[in-house]
Amino acid sequence: MMGAVGAALLSCGLMAPQASAIPITGAITFAGGAILDTPDATSATSATFLNPVAVISKSGSFVTAGATATFANPFIFESGAVAGFWTSLPFTFDLISSTVTTRTATGLIVNGVGTVTAAGFDPTPGIFAFSTQDPSAGGVFSFSASTDTRGGVPDGGLTITLLGLSMVSLVGLRNKFAKV
Length: 180
Hints:
Layout: H1 2-15, E1 27-36, E2 46-58, E3 68-71, E4 75-76, E5 82-88, E6 91-104, E7 107-117, E8 124-133, E9 140-147, H2 158-179
Antiparallel strand pairs: 1-2, 1-9, 2-3, 2-4, 3-5, 5-6, 6-7, 7-8, 8-9
Helix pairs in contact: 1-2
């Protein structure tokens, strides 16, 4: 009886659909114009991008990205979630949060995290850095983004199947030794 149950569970686990996780990989950089909300970077709390922004370099999955990107305005440096923070088709980056990490008399760096999405790919964690100098070089900024797949890729259920088989085996062993 236990063998039949185990065989049934094993066959269900092997026939279960496996996740076809295709994370977005690589990096993309942008440069363009941005206007700070104050005359200097030491007190600025936001920037307004002059869209469209040029895509300067791209690698990995981002090689299919367009030549330009559009950013949501205004970009509040100490921000919460912003859906569609930047788009360079077919990719969209949804911001989760951002924070000023460096502020000096000569410039400003803002780092952030979010999720990159595109058709045919799994939503993938991403990170970015926005930087501008003070005095601003005619409003020019740089922005680099990359994926962050350190979180791992889903295994499609194999782990849970093995855990279930282990539990069934333990129950079988317990029942066998309980009769002795």
